[in-house]
Write a sequence for this structure.
């Protein structure tokens, strides 16, 4: 269970009082609101990244463990952006190998490649294993990007408009597939989106504009 409580995003002359959030395993929260209102800022704060220009406060816990003072690498939170950022000099298989945790069962190059191949086979993309990112379609890149993110075994996945660059037909297919995959893996996820009409019926929805206070004086 991911919990976010008492969260505020404060700037010089506005403030957002984010309502408390609780996400069980496999559940999805979709963040919407106009550009610049703080959707991506909220994701980076959750990730543990340094946030500039505004002040974000609040408490984050995962399975009743506080994440508030943990570094990025200790939070086990993944981030999937619109640009998947696959390493161009690595094959699809080796991109996934790079993301696998350094655990004993995957300590050798052979073991890691076998695991990566199995992950690709699980989503019917084993035939892409030896291709390079430049040889993939947009939909293939998105699917490989999601599997690479899941290969790192995140306990939470944050997604910042991950399908926005795809054409409408492909976007619908890939978003449905990706969200079904996250649900089946039991990974709670938070996704930023501008497409209100595409929010799944079973997802939670948070429009940050509804909690934006333009009359706040200062960040206190």
């Amino acid at each position: 269970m991911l919990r976010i409580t008492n969260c505020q995003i404060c700037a010089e002359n506005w403030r957002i009082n984010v309502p408390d959030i609780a996400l069980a395993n496999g559940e999805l929260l979709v963040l919407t609101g106009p550009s610049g209102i703080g959707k991506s800022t909220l994701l980076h704060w959750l990730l543990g990244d340094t946030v500039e220009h505004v002040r974000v406060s609040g408490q984050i816990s995962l399975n009743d463990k506080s994440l508030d003072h943990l570094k990025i690498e200790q939070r086990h939170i993944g981030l999937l952006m619109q640009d998947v950022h696959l390493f161009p000099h690595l094959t699809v298989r080796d991109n996934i190998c790079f993301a696998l945790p350094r655990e004993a069962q995957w300590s050798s190059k052979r073991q890691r490649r076998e695991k990566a191949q199995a992950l690709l086979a699980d989503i019917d993309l084993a035939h892409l294993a030896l291709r390079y990112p430049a040889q993939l379609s947009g939909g293939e890149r998105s699917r490989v990007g999601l599997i690479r993110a899941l290969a790192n075994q995140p306990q939470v996945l944050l997604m910042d408009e991950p399908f926005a660059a795809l054409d409408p037909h492909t976007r619908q297919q890939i978003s449905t597939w990706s969200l079904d995959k996250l649900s089946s893996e039991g990974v709670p996820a938070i996704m930023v989106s501008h497409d209100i009409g595409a929010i799944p019926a079973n997802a939670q929805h948070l429009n940050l504009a509804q909690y934006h206070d333009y009359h706040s004086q200062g960040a206190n």
About this structure: Confidence is low (pLDDT under 50) at residues 216-220.
